[in-house]
Amino acid sequence: MKIIVDVMGGDNAPNSNIKGALEAIKENDIQIIFVGPKELIETELNKYQYSKDKIEIINADEKIENDDEPTQAIRKKTNSSMVIGLNALAEGLGDGFISAGNTGALLAGSIFIIKRLEDIDRAAITVLYPTIKGMSLLVDAGANMDSKPEYLRQFAIMGYIYTKEVLGKSNPTVGLINVGSEKTKGNLLSKEAFKLLESEEINFIGNIEGRDLPFGVADVMVCDGFVGNVVLKVTEGVAESIFSMLKKELTSSKKSKFGALLLKNELSNLKKALDYREYGGAPLLGIRKPVVKAHGSSDDYAIKNGINQLIRYIDKDIIKIIESQL
Amino acid sequence: MKIIVDVMGGDNAPNSNIKGALEAIKENDIQIIFVGPKELIETELNKYQYSKDKIEIINADEKIENDDEPTQAIRKKTNSSMVIGLNALAEGLGDGFISAGNTGALLAGSIFIIKRLEDIDRAAITVLYPTIKGMSLLVDAGANMDSKPEYLRQFAIMGYIYTKEVLGKSNPTVGLINVGSEKTKGNLLSKEAFKLLESEEINFIGNIEGRDLPFGVADVMVCDGFVGNVVLKVTEGVAESIFSMLKKELTSSKKSKFGALLLKNELSNLKKALDYREYGGAPLLGIRKPVVKAHGSSDDYAIKNGINQLIRYIDKDIIKIIESQL
């Protein structure tokens, strides 16, 4: 199995991407294709001991930045690590692609270069959403505005399959994000989508409300991309704001600093519970080959785990299962 | 000025509603009309010292429950404290109405009994949303699914006026909840609403993203009711889940319990920062008379503050200002 790694994507590129990939090689019987500036990669690789026969490099001198307009970036930066990496995947040089770069560009590039599955109307961005019970899969986390009920049906089926096969949850629960638990609640989209989801064999548990999401009420949380983006960002913002207030309080006096010191382990446990790093990444769903998006602030540990997830994505032949179900 | 109080609404009814109203009488030159079971109110009133000439009671034997279907409840429970209270407001027996009861029923009742303002397409539920800079007003917090751009324009204007006049923020900022900061981002609704908001004199600061809401990026946060409900409930859920994890960690060992004891004040400051009680309630906007919804779990302090807010809502003649601007 060959994994193509976007060396230049993410806040800690290239170091973490390379280090994480080398760690993944130790744990798995895989080969890595690094895509990025050749000399930079070689210099970085010199810091580590690794089996040379497990590594290939494809040169790519450009880089897609986080604030590049996605579609423009894919069209114009044809020498970027992301575009060249996706082309390598399309050409069959590797079995899957991982990037911690610009999410919108990765989605646009995957659709342009890898193409959507035939029976899929829209590809979706997924995100592993932290809950007190572990991670849930949020689909769609921001790819598609003004979704139609049929898109949500497809997101639900793809999310169910991925969660079952790759995240290893047997018969995961699927919930529809809505403003009330009753079937008749919500907007036109959610009411119609409810009817479609009801008749699928996906362990649909009905509507789920915002308040219950962080408590892990469903393993797969389905919604329109506008709503998914708002859910995700509000969650990040609330957690961040509470931690910033907590930090301020804990450093407000000598006594509070001492108290905080006694609670060091407990506070770090709390942060860890909200940590994306254990999972490393989440798949783009609905395209013809496996692509995983790693978190923008991924360190080497997150990249390694993202690659491990990509390996299962490939190994379990998720895309074939999705095709056969749709 | 006469304030009509729904004695039976809320988790702590009737005690907190009555106690809070009696406290409001001490602070303001107002009269209170209590609506609810007469004997129950009299028994409760006997616990306190108060000026009898400032109190009236209107008997109402029924109660609208939190899980009653709103429209049905308003139509069928004609002897409920909420319906009788709203009728008293419509007939001019009082100047404003406050209830901590079923939000949907209060909205439906206000529209049926008090009626919408002539130039308003949809009445909105607002909520005071906790941020690290204080409270922001969220409009619409869940009344209207599938909003049109014009509704959002009206929500923005009403929210701006209320925040300026009642919450006392001079030239408050107005933001449109969206998935990106650029004008071209979002769904069809947000793109069209952006254009409308741009041309209003309401200190519109553009799109605001989920992540920034808890940091107080805008004083007035405008969105469709589906999105507003999700924002509100996700915020509550995330805060609750973090506090529940924190509590678990802080009681996990003797050492952590001691640390937590040292941090007692700081942790209570943190909870206080997220506390709705200081504000007590938020207005329904777009109807012909002042109605304030107090939080369902309001204690007497919250009810008192809700009444104080209702007094300013009446005193500043907000509804006339809204009418003249629309």
What does this protein look like?
2 copies of one chain form a homodimer. Chain A has 12 helices and 11 strands. With 326 residues, chain A is α/β, with parallel strands linked by helices. Chain A has 2 domains: 1-120 and 286-326, Isopropylmalate Dehydrogenase (3-Layer(aba) Sandwich), CATH 3.40.718; 121-280, 3-Layer(aba) Sandwich (Isopropylmalate Dehydrogenase). Chain A has an 11-stranded mixed β-sheet with strand order 3-2-1-4-11-10-5-6-9-7-8, with helices on both faces. In chain A, strand 7, helix 7 and strand 8 (204-209) form a beta-alpha-beta unit. In chain A, helix 3 packs across helix 5 (103-114) and helix 6 packs across helix 7. The first copy, chain A, is globular and about 60 Å long. The model of chain A has no long low-confidence stretch (mean pLDDT 94). At the A-B interface, helix 8, helix 9 and helix 10 of A face helix 8, helix 9 and helix 10 of B.
CATH class of the largest domain in chain A: Alpha Beta
The value of Rg of chain A in angstroms is 20 Å
The helix fraction of chain A, in percent, is 40-55%
Report strand % of chain A.
15-25%
The average pLDDT score of chain A comes to: 94
Largest sheet, spatial ordering of strands of chain A:
3-2-1-4-11-10-5-6-9-7-8
Tally of individual helices of chain A: 12
Short description:
The structure is a homodimer of 326-residue chains. Chain A contains twelve helices and eleven strands.
